[in-house]
Specification:
By secondary structure, the protein is mainly beta. Helices cover about 15% and strands about 40% of the residues. The protein has helices at about 15-25, 70-80; strands at about 1-5, 10-15, 30-35, 40-50, 55-60, 65-70, 85-90, 95-100. The protein has a 4-stranded mixed β-sheet. Strands 3-4-6-5 form a 4-stranded mixed β-sheet. β7 (about 85-90) and β8 (about 95-100) form a beta hairpin. The longest helix is centred in the middle third of the chain and has 9 residues, at about 70-80. The two termini are about 30 Å apart. About 15% of the residues are buried. The model has no long low-confidence stretch (mean pLDDT about 85).
Length: about 130
């Protein structure tokens, strides 16, 4: 899973195997360490939440969790829908733009680099 942060926007890109794990009920997560201390880390996670009405974010300490409604996750996985977008109100801090997408194969990378990605819809296009 890849994360991109800019201002008040977050974008997650999810591989095929990660999406399969998500649908199986697993929490998909990644952790980045910034220093040798055990506490110097940041974890981001994606999971289904059957009671959620829309995608949401929970932040505690050094962990951010993205919660997807289960029915929305299944529709996303079973169709050619690229992603799920949500604008989350932050009250006086404005809003958070959240985008969770399928990770498509890069057209300029090797098959090995793209082995767990989704087929790129532009793979057969010519310049």
């Amino acid at each position: 899973m890849k994360i991109r942060m800019k201002g008040n926007s977050l974008r997650l890109r999810v591989s095929r195997s990660e999406l399969a794990r998500l649908l199986a009920g697993d929490c998909v997560e990644e952790t980045i360490h910034f220093a040798p201390q055990a506490s110097a880390k940041f974890t981001y996670a994606l999971q289904q939440e059957s009671s959620a009405k829309s995608p949401t974010v929970h932040y505690t300490g050094s962990r951010v969790s993205f919660l997807l409604p289960a029915d929305q996750a299944y529709v996303w996985a079973a169709t050619d829908q690229v992603g799920i977008a949500e604008e989350i109100s932050l009250g006086t801090f404005g809003s958070l733009a959240l985008l969770i997408e399928k990770d498509f194969a890069c057209l300029d990378r090797s098959d090995e680099d793209n082995r767990d990605s989704f087929s790129n819809p532009h793979a057969d296009a010519t310049c």
